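Hi support team,

I'm opening this ticket because the web form for multi-chain structure prediction keeps timing out on my end. I have pasted the exact lines I submitted so you can reproduce it. The total is 227 residues across two entries, so I didn't expect it to be a heavy job. Is there a limit I'm missing, or should I split the entries? Thanks in advance, R.K.
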Amino acid sequence: DGGITQSPKYLFRKEGQNVTLSCEQNLNHDAMYWYRQDPGQGLRLIYYSQIVNDFQKGDIAEGYSVSREKKESFPLTVTSAQKNPTAFYLCASSPRTGHQPQHFGDGTRLSIL
Amino acid sequence: EDKVVQSPLSLVVHEGDTVTLNCSYEVTNFRSLLWYKQEKKAPTFLFMLTSSGIEKKSGRLSSILDKKELFSILNITATQTGDSAVYLCAVEWSSGGSNYKLTFGKGTLLTVNP
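Hello R.K., no limit was hit. The queue was backed up. Here is the completed structure from your submission:
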């Protein structure tokens, strides 16, 4: 079945450590997105990519980095510069940017040790 | 300030009740408004609205958009416990040019008690 796979489901980070969240899609979508969701908050856009080897900052990109070396994959690295990383992270894709709706993965819950 | 505002933030009803969830927005170059349902994990798509006054319907759920007053409502009739979820509203808009983005509201937590 086509869809978006995020891994791991749960992740723990030590202080000063970088961690990488995986997002893979087999929908043949050009556009991919990373969102952060905090309790009582909506989804906030971290980064998005319209095409391979291209990506743009969203509203809250500080402390995060991404890469898009393959169409199917859009990993997110939470760096030590992100001082409040505890949140639920959602990856999404769409056939192209500006083409809705977006399809979402099941998310990764990141916590600080 | 928030561009997409949902109300109420939470709501508790009994099975069989009808609920109305609200979403107001203030953006430039509006293109569409979307409703998603989020239970535990991935938000699932419900409706996309682009034109005023045209109701979209799927079973017990329906939604309508008012582009003049800048809001949308999501109605759920004869609620069931399986309707318990966070309902997210998102607006697609552009600050100029063809670079559109999706901005989400904080969501409405609906709890349906048996």
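A quick check on our side: Chain B touches chain A at residues 4, 6, 9, 31-32, 34, 36, 41-45, 48, 88, 90, 92, 98-107 (CB under 8 Å). Let us know if the file doesn't open in your viewer.
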